[in-house]
Amino acid sequence: MNRIYLYGFVGKDPDTRTVNEKTVTKFSLATSKTFTNGAGEKITGTQWHNIVMWGKLAETASKYVKKGSSLIIEGEIQYRTYEKDGHTVYTTDIVADQMHFTGKKEDSKPDNNEGKFQKGGNVSVKSMSDISELPGNVANYDEIPEDKDLPF
Description:
mainly beta; CATH 2.40.50.140; 5-stranded mixed β-barrel; 8 strands; 152 residues; globular
């Protein structure tokens, strides 16, 4: 299985083009990890990922994603090689098929408050920044009907 999940911040505004009558959007995503080294110092390492989106997802990203947007990207890793100036260039892309707006930055959320977009359409859920507003959340255990046959 080739599946990757990334949470990070967009490094630059997306570049959107049309290739063979299909929309493609590309941008960079920074993911960070903080750890303590042997000397007790906190070290933050940042990795940059090339994100590629196609079709409706690419169109959505071109409208709503901006530099600094906080996103969760789901997709697959794709390795490519090509020739440039007589040298072989190796590149790794993340071909995204889902994008989730995490709500960390106000302008990263779509105007219609849809928080999750998928290839081939969209699914409406609220921002992931407030879990109490997500569908299916039960804030009080007393609200669960006793007559329901629960699987656990």
